[in-house]
Design a protein that fits this description.
The complex is a heterodimer of chains A (about 220) and B (about 375). Chain A has about 220 residues and is α/β, with parallel strands linked by helices. Chain A is built from eight helices and nine strands. Chain A has a single domain, classed as P-loop containing nucleotide triphosphate hydrolases (Rossmann fold). In chain A, strand 1 and strand 2 form a beta hairpin. The radius of gyration of chain A is 17 Å and the shape is globular. Chain B has two domains: about 180 residues, no CATH class; about 160 residues, no CATH class. Chains A and B meet through helix 3 and helix 4 of A and helix 1, helix 11 and helix 15 of B.
Chain lengths: ~220, ~375
C-alpha cells in the first residue's frame, strides 16, 4: 500500500467559527489520519473537539481550509452522502439510538440507507452483535438496555456498513468508569482487528494516552503531544 | 427491518395522534362516498324518471328548476302536433307532505303514461288510474312508509285521499312517490293547465334536430333537450354535483390538515433522530420519502376505515324512508378510485411541509443541542 493510499483523512488549516465569526472554535487546525490508526482529540469540554469531528464527517462545513476523507471532499453534498454511507461511522456520547426500535433494528439502520440485502444485513448484524457481546440482546428495545449496552449497540451501528474511518465523539462520556473502560477497549479492539482508522474525541486523559497519537485542542488550536 | 417497519414504528409512537390523522382521512372518504352516492343516486333516478320511454324533454326555457317550469296544455297539444312526434306525455312535479313525512314527491301524469304500463301493480289496476275522483296512487315504498293500502284513506297535505292502487317501479325515486292524474295534480298545486315537462318520443330518433328546431321556433319560451344533453346542462344537476364535490373536497381538506398536523408533530418530536438517520447515510430524499410514507400509511388506514364507515352509512340510509330512493348503495368503481386517489393525494399534500422540514434538518445543528 502506498503512503498516499494509507491516508484516510486529512485536514489542512481548517477554521470554524460561530455567531458570525465572534466565537472562533477552530483556528488553522491540521490533521492527518492513516488507516488503522487511532487518534485522540483531547481537550476540555467546549474546546472544539466535536466541531472538528463534525467537519471531518461532513456534518458541518469549515469557514476556511480543506478536508479530504477517503479521497473525497466532504464539502460537496454528493460526497458527504457517499462518505456517510460507505466510509464513515459515527459514535456519539449519547448513543443517539432510536428508542422504539430493537437493538437489531437500530444496528440495521445504515443498511437501510444503502439498500443492503436482507440476508447480508442479517449476517452482518449477527457478527457485530457477537463481537460486542450483544447477541442475547438483539430483540430487546433500547430502553431495556444499560448504558454500556446502548453504547455497544451504537458502536455496532457505526460499523454496520464497514467504514474506513470511525469518528467517536466522547463515546465514554456518559458512562461510569468501568463501563467506559470496557467500551473504549472494545472500540480499540474492533478498530485494530478491522484496520479501521479512529478519531476519538475525549476529555479523559487516560483514553487519550491509550491511543496511537494524541492531539490536544486548546483555544481552537490543535497541537500534537 | 425494512423501511415499512420503520414507518409503522414511527406512527406507533404517538398512536392517538396518528389515529386522529387517519380519522380525518376516514371522515373525508366517508363523507365523499356518502355525498356522491346520494347525489349521483338522486341525479340518476331523476334522469330515469324524465327519460322514461322518451327521446326529448321539453320544458320552459331559463327556469332554475323543473319544479318551476310551466308548459301549458296548448303547448303540449302543439308539441303533439309536431311532425315526427309519436308520443308526448306531460308530467307535473310537486312536493306533498303527509303526517310524519314532510317531503314526498308527487307526480301528476296522464293515464297513458308509459310508467304506469311498465310498473308492477301490487294493488289495484292500471286501468283504474284517473277514473276514481280523489284517488291517489302510491309507489310501493311510499305505501310502505305511509302504511297505506288500496281502498284506505290517507292524508296528503290538507286533504284526505283514497288510495286507488299501489305499484312498484324500477325507479326508487318514483317508488317513494305519490301519483295523481295530471288534471287533479294541476288543481291541487294551483298550476292551472300547466305541466312541468313533456317527455317526447319520436317516430324516428334521427328527426330529433328538426323537431327541436321546429318546436323552439314555434314556441320560443320552451326548450327541447335530448336526455343526455339535459343531464349535462340542467342547473340543478350542476348545483348538486358542484355541492357534492365542494363538500367532499372540504372534508378532505380538513383531513389533509389533520395529516399535516400529525406529521408536523411527528417530525418536531424527532428532529434529533432524523439527524441520526442523516448521519447513518439517509439522503434528504430518503428522509422525505419516510415522511411521505408515514402520511401514505395514515391515508391507507383512513381509506379502509372511511370505506367501511361510508358503505355502512349508505346501507343505513338506503333503509331510511325519508330518502325515498335518493341513495345508491352501490358506487361506481371510477368514483371509488377517485375517492381513494383523492385521499392519498390529500394525505401526501398534507405531508409536503413536514417532509420538506425533515429533509432540511442539518445533522450537526440538530445533534449539537440536547
Amino acid at each position: 500500500m502506498s503512503e498516499s493510499l494509507a491516508i484516510i483523512a486529512e485536514a489542512r488549516e481548517v477554521s470554524k467559527s460561530y455567531d458570525g465569526g465572534r466565537i472562533a472554535v477552530l483556528r488553522g487546525a491540521s490533521l492527518r489520519v492513516q488507516a488503522g490508526e487511532m487518534v485522540a482529540l483531547w481537550g476540555a469540554s467546549g474546546s472544539g473537539k466535536s466541531t472538528f469531528l463534525h467537519l471531518l464527517g461532513g456534518l458541518d462545513l469549515p469557514d476556511a481550509g480543506t478536508i479530504t476523507v477517503c479521497g473525497l471532499d466532504p464539502q460537496l453534498e454528493a460526497n458527504r452522502l457517499e462518505l456517510r454511507r460507505r466510509h464513515l461511522g459515527f459514535v456519539f456520547q449519547l448513543h443517539n439510538l432510536i428508542p422504539d426500535l430493537t437493538v437489531e433494528e437500530n444496528i440495521r439502520v445504515p443498511a437501510l440507507a444503502v439498500g443492503l440485502g436482507t440476508a447480508v444485513t442479517a449476517t452482518r448484524v449477527r457478527q457485530l452483535a457477537a463481537s460486542v457481546g450483544l447477541t442475547h440482546r438483539l430483540g430487546h428495545r433500547i430502553q431495556d438496555l444499560s448504558g454500556g449496552e446502548r453504547q455497544r449497540t451504537a458502536l455496532c451501528r457505526a460499523l454496520m456498513n464497514s467504514p474506513r474511518l470511525l469518528l467517536a465523539d466522547e463515546p465514554t462520556g456518559s458512562l461510569d468508569e468501568q463501563t467506559g473502560e470496557s467500551v473504549f477497549r472494545l472500540l480499540q479492539e474492533l478498530a485494530r482487528r478491522d484496520g479501521i482508522a479512529v478519531v476519538l474525541a475525549t476529555h479523559e486523559r487516560r483514553f487519550a494516552s491509550a491511543c496511537d497519537r494524541q492531539l490536544r485542542i486548546r483555544d481552537g488550536v490543535l497541537t500534537e503531544n | 427491518m425494512r423501511v415499512f417497519s420503520l414507518v409503522l414504528t414511527n406512527l406507533g409512537r404517538h398512536r392517538l395522534r396518528a389515529l386522529m390523522g387517519s380519522a380525518g382521512i376516514a371522515f373525508g372518504v366517508a363523507a365523499m362516498l356518502t355525498i356522491l352516492a346520494i347525489v349521483t343516486g338522486a341525479i340518476g333516478m331523476f334522469q330515469q324518471i324524465l327519460s322514461t320511454d322518451s327521446h326529448y324533454l321539453v320544458f320552459e326555457r331559463n327556469v332554475s328548476d323543473l319544479f318551476f317550469s310551466s308548459v301549458t296544455r296548448a303547448q303540449v297539444a302543439s308539441i303533439r302536433a309536431q311532425p315526427g312526434v309519436r308520443e308526448a306525455h306531460a308530467v307535473l312535479f310537486g312536493i306533498v307532505s303527509s303526517p310524519g313525512h314532510p317531503v314526498i314527491t308527487c307526480f301528476g301524469i296522464d293515464a297513458s303514461d308509459p310508467r304506469l304500463r311498465r310498473a308492477t301493480w301490487l294493488e289495484g289496476q292500471p286501468a283504474d288510474f284517473g277514473r276514481k275522483p280523489g284517488a291517489v296512487y302510491l309507489g310501493a315504498r311510499a305505501a310502505a312508509f305511509l302504511g297505506a293500502h288500496a281502498g284506505e284513506a290517507i292524508v296528503i297535505g290538507r286533504g284526505d285521499f283514497l288510495v286507488g292502487g299501489v305499484f312498484r317501479t324500477e325507479n326508487g325515486f318514483e317508488d317513494g312517490g305519490v301519483f295523481l292524474p295530471l288534471a287533479e295534480a294541476q288543481d291541487y298545486f294551483h298550476r292551472g293547465d300547466a305541466a312541468s315537462v313533456v317527455a317526447v318520443k319520436l317516430s324516428d330518433e334521427s328527426g330529433g334536430p328538426a323537431f327541436k328546431a321546429a318546436l323552439e321556433s314555434a314556441a320560443p319560451g320552451l326548450v327541447a333537450l335530448e336526455n343526455r344533453e339535459f343531464s349535462s346542462s340542467y342547473n340543478s344537476f350542476k348545483i348538486l354535483n358542484f355541492t357534492a364535490w365542494a363538500v367532499g373536497i372540504c372534508a378532505f381538506a380538513l383531513g389533509g390538515l389533520g395529516v399535516a398536523n400529525t406529521m408536523l408533530f411527528s417530525v418536531f418530536t424527532r428532529i434529533r433522530e432524523i439527524a441520526v438517520l442523516r448521519v447513518c447515510g439517509f439522503s434528504t430524499r430518503q428522509v422525505a420519502l419516510l415522511i411521505f410514507s408515514e402520511a401514505a400509511a395514515l391515508a391507507a388506514a383512513g381509506v379502509v376505515a372511511g370505506l367501511v364507515l361510508g358503505f355502512g352509512l349508505l346501507q343505513v340510509l338506503v333503509h331510511v324512508p325519508q330518502f325515498q330512493g335518493y341513495v345508491q348503495a352501490t358506487v361506481r368503481p371510477v368514483v371509488l378510485v377517485g375517492i381513494v386517489v383523492t385521499a392519498f393525494v390529500t394525505a401526501v399534500t398534507g405531508a409536503i411541509f413536514p417532509a420538506r422540514f425533515a429533509a432540511r434538518i442539518q445533522p450537526a445543528e440538530a445533534l449539537r443541542y440536547e
